[in-house]
Specification:
With 91 residues, the chain is mainly alpha-helical. Keywords: Membrane, Transmembrane, Transmembrane helix.
Length: 91
């Protein structure tokens, strides 16, 4: 049963990332930063949609570290974008 849930999680994340690449390519907006942000959003959605109600398996508890790392990289991307938008004399 646990293997089936893990497989469903991996398939969901893979489908989300593949759809993200296809959509961004069709829109002509494919960039590494945008792909990462949309993949992180998809990851968080898939984590919530596949969460069990009663018991949290050990492999799902380890996802917290992946989420934390993703949020740190997301914060870095946001800070970089904000600094690129601000005028030179502000910072």
């Amino acid at each position: 049963m646990a293997t089936q849930r893990r497989r469903r999680f991996v398939y969901g994340q893979t489908a989300w990332m593949l759809a993200t690449v296809v959509c961004l390519s069709l829109l002509g907006a494919l960039s590494l930063e945008l792909f990462f942000v949309l993949s992180l959003i998809g990851f968080l959605v898939v984590v919530e949609l596949t969460a069990p109600f009663a018991v949290t398996p050990r492999w799902r508890a380890r996802l917290r570290w992946v989420i934390l790392a993703g949020l740190v990289v997301f914060a870095y991307v946001v800070v970089r974008r904000v600094l690129a938008i601000l005028p030179q004399g502000v910072v």
